[in-house]
Write a structure and sequence with these properties.
By secondary structure, the protein is mainly β. It has a single domain (about 30-110), classed as Sandwich (Gamma-B Crystallin, domain 1), CATH 2.60.20. About 15% of the residues lie in helices and about 40% in strands. The protein contains 1 helix and 9 strands. The strands form 2 sheets. Strands 1, 2, 4, 7 and 8 form a 5-stranded antiparallel β-sheet that branches. The longest helix is centred in the first third of the chain and has 16 residues, at about 5-20. The protein is globular, with a radius of gyration of 20 Å.
């Protein structure tokens, strides 16, 4: 039995799409910015590109005494930032693509949904 060219092309395309999988499964698209003070008290500006989605992320290099602040959400997902680690404590919502918080919005963890 011989496969004809269109059938062979369809089978090949189906296999390639299945092998490639989703383009960005598990990640949101865009940038998330925030600021924090390092151990020397110097302000640092951070940016995450295409962060994980639906998983709580504890912000690295911050503590309750030196929390992250001034978040800007330029991702295609809503961002919930939390005053404590493990996405607990006071919760703040940042709208997708345009969500911003001021210097008084302090947080230690975030989840994108």
């Amino acid at each position: 039995m011989r496969l004809r060219a269109p059938a062979l092309a369809t089978c090949t395309l189906t296999f390639l799409l299945a092998a490639a999988g989703p383009a960005s499964a598990g990640n949101t698209t865009g940038d998330f910015h925030y600021r924090h003070l390092d151990t020397n008290g110097v302000e640092q500006q951070e940016k995450w590109t295409n962060p994980l989605q639906s998983e709580c992320i504890d912000v690295p290099d911050v503590t309750a005494d030196r929390p992250a602040y001034s978040p800007i959400n330029e991702t295609d997902s809503k961002a919930y930032v939390y005053a404590d680690t493990d996405c607990t404590g006071t919760e703040y919502l940042l709208a997708k693509n345009v969500g911003k918080g001021g210097e008084d919005m302090k947080f230690l963890s975030v989840v994108f949904v």
